[in-house]
């Protein structure tokens, strides 16, 4: 069920801004000596960034109040236009989904649904086809989830069981253990190589000292 209108995200976001805008506009109109219609006109023209210039604050105080009015008016108008666009898109998508669900399935639809080409359409194949066709999910997401399922289904039975997760955990543990062993072996080689280098360097130094003495 849809949330009540007073719990909408748009209203929660815009209402505080609208309250501040109303307060600043009231002070601005009162300072400029405008009536309610003239103040509303100024806010609308300013919020749409049209700016005819026929109404503008003339005092220093009025110009000071005009700064937050401009910022708030533009912000509220942008949020309102975005909400209207989202509502239109949502309405069109809902209408499309209703029409798609109401239409009769064809043989061609069943052939497209039959992803594994076994001559039958499973519940998973039906759901995948319908969700993608109604643009509820992206085909890429379905493919990624299918690939993830196949990786987890290590015994290839087409279903996930405890044994599958145990095998996956063991493989990860074995892989981690193997990496640790390789890292330790690499460290040993580096230490061995360093010791050999030090021995060769000491031997060469002793040979040089010996030749100088003779």
Q: Topology, pairings included?
A:
Blueprint: H1 9-32, H2 36-47, H3 60-102, H4 107-113, H5 123-133, H6 139-152, H7 162-213
Structure description:
This protein is mainly alpha-helical. Helix content is about 75%, strand content about 0%. The protein contains seven helices and no strands. The protein has helices spanning about 10-30, 35-45, 60-100, 105-115, 125-135, 140-150, 160-214. The mean pLDDT is about 75.
| Number of strand segments | 0
The proportion of strand residues reads: under 5%
Shape: flat
Largest sheet: none
- How confident is the prediction overall: mean pLDDT? 76
Low-confidence stretches: none
End-to-end distance: 101 Å
């Amino acid at each position: 069920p849809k949330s009540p209108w007073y719990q909408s995200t748009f209203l929660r976001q815009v209402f505080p801004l609208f309250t501040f805008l109303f307060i600043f506009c009231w002070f601005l109109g009162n300072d400029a000596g405008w009536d309610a219609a003239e103040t509303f006109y100024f806010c609308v023209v300013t919020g749409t960034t049209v700016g005819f210039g026929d109404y503008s604050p003339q005092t220093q105080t009025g110009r000071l109040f005009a700064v937050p009015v401009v910022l708030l008016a533009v912000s509220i108008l942008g949020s309102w236009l975005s909400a209207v666009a989202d509502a239109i898109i949502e309405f069109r998508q809902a209408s499309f989904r209703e029409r798609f669900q109401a239409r009769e399935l064809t043989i061609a639809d069943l052939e497209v649904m039959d992803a594994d080409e076994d001559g039958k359409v499973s519940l998973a194949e039906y759901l995948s086809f319908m969700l993608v066709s109604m643009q509820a999910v992206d085909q890429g997401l379905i493919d990624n989830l299918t690939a993830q399922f196949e990786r987890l289904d290590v015994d290839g039975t087409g279903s996930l069981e405890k044994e599958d997760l145990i095998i996956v955990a063991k493989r990860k543990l074995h892989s981690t253990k193997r990496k640790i062993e390789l890292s330790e072996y690499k460290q040993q080689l580096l230490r061995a190589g360093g010791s050999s280098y030090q021995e060769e360097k000491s031997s060469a130094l002793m040979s040089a000292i010996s030749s100088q003495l003779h």
